[in-house]
Amino acid sequence: MTKSDLVNFIFERVGLPRTEIQKIVEAVFDTIKEALLEEEVVKISGFGVFTVRRKGSRVGRNPKTMQIVEIKPRKVVTFRPSEQLKQALQKNIT
User: Fold this and answer.
1) What is the CATH number of domain 45-94?
2) How far apart are CA 14 and CA 2, in angstroms?
3) How high is the mean pLDDT of the chain?
4) Which stretch of DSSP H or E encloses residue 41?
5) Cβ pair 7, 18 in contact under 8 A
6) CA nearest to 71, candidates 79, 86, 82, 60
7) Where are the domains of the chain?
């Protein structure tokens, strides 16, 4: 699902003008992005938790050339789904 698909889905369900929905969706994503840039935890009830994790430097290997390279320290975003989301996903297994 793309951001445009999300806007269309909400438009069909809510009926607000598409431009207003697009502004709201952009505002939500911008707010989440700003919080993650500040390394805040973003908890969305019934959905999950986004966190920023720091990964230290480590030695890796290029699988093609087998050359050893240093992987620099970096930040990554992690997502942990809520129990409700996990249960909903398990109900859809057939």
Assistant:
1) 4.10.520.10
2) 18
3) 94
4) none
5) yes
6) 60
7) 1-38, 45-94
